Amino acid sequence: MTSTLRKVAATSAALSAVLAVTAGCVESGREDTGAAASCPFAADPSVTSTVRLGFQAIPNGDLLVKDRNLLQACLPNAKITWSQFSSGADVVQAFGAGGLDIGTLGSSPATKALSAPLNLPVQVVWIHDVIGTSESLVVRDKSITTLAGLAGRKVATPFGSTSHYSLLAALDKAGLTGKVELINLAPDAIPGAWQGNQIDAAWVWDPTLSKLTAAGGTVVTSSAETAAAGAPTYDLAIADKKFLAGNAAFAKTWAKVQDYAVGQLKSQQAEAAVSIGAQLGIAPDKVVPQLAGYQYLPAAEQAGAKYLGGGFSADLTGTARFLLSQGGIAAVGTEQQYRDGISATAAAGAGS
């Protein structure tokens, strides 16, 4: 397969273009429905940080935090701006241009950010979710029941995303490298291409995934299967190192509200689905099935040795090796380099 992972141009002009296309609601909260802004713990008025947050339309705790205006409720004197992005590649580009402080992206683009030639000064500070069946390969032709049936077909996915990584890994394992035409499409552009018969299949996440299955698409495989085969994927939050150094109190509270959101996803799923559905623009009953495709980790578990406490560097290193084989990065860094690219400080503070 030829290299399809594009290099990020880290320029201010590029950032402006990204924000012009991907920026969504830039004020935290959901004023039109009167979402209650109530901090679930003691608010901290001493924090006066100015923070630029990047989010994606992924059904996880970040959307609940945004929808319920939790950060502004817990940090009433902080200035918080939210910008929406359509893929992790765009988030990496924004960090490269110095336009974000904390942002959501998948483990594949996060690995690219930490690897040559980018080597961005960022750290993974949170694991929003472990991706399972929530990212899947959907085909139009019901006669295609295995990956082998994709030979000579057109498959869409957002380049540089975790779905792209899973697709490449699955094709590689099936011996289909170079035998499938890959099409780079943002999630919101995939349904139109599907309806216009411009693509034969897509590997993507919800809510686009559910739109394709509702339109008659059939799931052939998922990121849960590629994970079991040795290529796990995650949705993460990365933060600028300089920002973290100067805004430790903000980062700790940010992690605490994220941890609260994880608890809501586990114990109050119906209520959490209302907030997530409002941010995704879909009914809550459509959200609940999507949540089953992810695993949400509490802060205490994230801060442990298996994840941000050290072990997660092995996942990043493994991802880097595969990205190098596909031409997506210039070189694999040392495991210590990827260890230095994660921080358990905020998660540990939230879980204590």
Overall description:
The protein is α/β, with parallel strands linked by helices and 352 residues long. Helix content is 42%, strand content 17%. The strands form 2 sheets. The protein has a 6-stranded mixed sheet, sandwiched between helices. Helix 6 links the parallel strand 6 and strand 7. It is globular and about 60 Å long. The protein starts with 11 loop residues before the first helix and ends with a helix.
What's the helix and strand layout?
Blueprint: H1 12-22, E1 50-55, H2 61-67, H3 70-74, E2 79-84, H4 88-96, E3 102-106, H5 107-114, E4 122-131, E5 135-139, E6 154-157, H6 162-173, E7 181-184, H7 190-195, E8 201-205, H8 208-214, E9 218-222, H9 223-228, E10 234-240, H10 241-246, H11 248-267, H12 269-280, H13 284-291, E11 294-295, H14 299-302, H15 312-325, H16 335-339, H17 345-351
Parallel strand pairs: 1-2, 1-3, 6-7, 6-8
Antiparallel strand pairs: 3-10, 4-10, 4-11, 5-8, 5-9
Helix pairs in contact: 1-4, 2-11, 2-12, 4-5, 5-15, 11-12, 11-17, 12-13
What is this structure, in a nutshell?
The protein is an alpha/beta fold and 352 residues long. Helices cover 42% and strands 17% of the residues. It is built from 17 helices and 11 strands.
